[in-house]
Automatic annotation (TrEMBL):
InterPro entries registered for this protein in UniProt: ABC_peri_PhnD-like, PhnD
One Pfam family from the record: Phosphonate-bd
Native source species: Paracoccus niistensis
SUPFAM superfamilies: Periplasmic binding protein-like II
Domain of life: Bacteria
Protein's name in the database: Selenate ABC transporter substrate-binding protein
Family: Belongs to the phosphate/phosphite/phosphonate binding protein family.
Signal peptide start and end residues: 1-21
């Protein structure tokens, strides 16, 4: 049965208003302390809400896998992922798209840091003298804190990290890796270079006893991923609108939340190398 034109118009208005009433929820991998993340991203939520014309709320999560699960369960529709978690999220959610990345992210690097008591010195070459010392990654599914450091350890030593180091641990996040190495709980650790550089800029005491000894070759890392059904829910062209808002973010205070100098467009294919490495290491099903 066909509805009268007047009823069709009312229905269309109702659907449009319902779309407008939806809240866009976003999250981020907890690569630093949870309290710091909430403070960082609440202002980003306000910015996105103003740019997009919809309510936007930040949803904190407690772990990297929890971020992927929240995205898959539609608890969040947008997420700031690392390279590996972005691949995991897209594989679990066909139609999801990587839409933006930091200007630094196409050529990201990890730092290997060592406690000064080890006597290890900075070098352009992988620290072979680190053999037999204790080592900590960050989170188990962190691109910069585990995936790429693990890959390069294998490339440079010809074996697994457990074969090269006396002990291998997982700190949970980059900030904790820095603290553990600085305290001497682990001799060496691998972490996101931006977290370490920020600690240096902030005058954090940990950098006095935890020094950079090596950095990995560059790789693609962090990126914003959006669910494939947002246009149907928020209106046609919404994905592009979100991308434009992220790329257009130029407030230094907001960018310092990441921290990034700015954002540029991204697309799924850029992270194919991350998927390849993850499959080689058995980190993807």
């Amino acid at each position: 049965m066909r509805l009268p034109a007047r009823l069709l118009a009312v229905a269309s208005l109702f659907l449009a208003s319902a779309a407008q009433a939806e809240t866009l929820y976003f999250s981020a991998i907890p690569d630093e302390d949870a309290t710091a993340l909430t403070a960082r991203f609440s202002k980003v939520a306000d910015y996105l809400s103003e740019e997009l014309g919809v309510d936007v709320e930040f949803v904190p999560v407690k772990s990297y896998p929890a971020a992927v699960t929240a995205f898959t369960n539609d608890q969040v529709q947008l997420a700031w992922f690392g390279g590996l978690t972005s691949v995991q999220a897209r594989l679990a959610n066909p139609g999801a798209q990587s839409i933006a990345q930091g200007t630094e992210d196409p050529t990201f690097v990890s730092y290997f840091i060592a406690n000064t008591a080890t006597g290890l010195e900075p070098s352009d070459d992988f620290p072979q003298d680190a053999r037999g010392k204790s080592f900590t990654f960050g989170a188990k599914t962190s691109t910069s804190g585990r995936l790429m450091p693990d890959y390069h350890i294998r490339q440079e030593t010809g074996g697994a990290p457990e074969d090269f180091f006396s002990t291998v641990g997982f700190s949970g996040d980059h900030s904790q890796t820095l603290r553990l190495v600085a305290s001497g709980a682990y001799d060496i650790g691998a972490l996101n270079y931006a977290v370490y550089d920020k600690a240096v800029a902030d005058g954090a005491p940990e950098v006095e006893t935890a020094k950079v000894i090596w950095k990995t070759p560059p790789y693609p890392d962090y990126n914003w991923v959006i669910r494939g059904d947002v246009d149907a829910r928020f209106g046609e062209g919404f994905t592009k609108k979100v991308q434009n808002a992220l790329v257009g973010m130029d407030d230094p205070e907001l960018l310092a939340s990441f921290p990034r100098e700015g954002f540029i467009p991204a697309e799924n294919a850029q992270f194919d190398p991350i998927e390849t490495v993850a499959r080689d290491l058995g980190l993807l099903e």
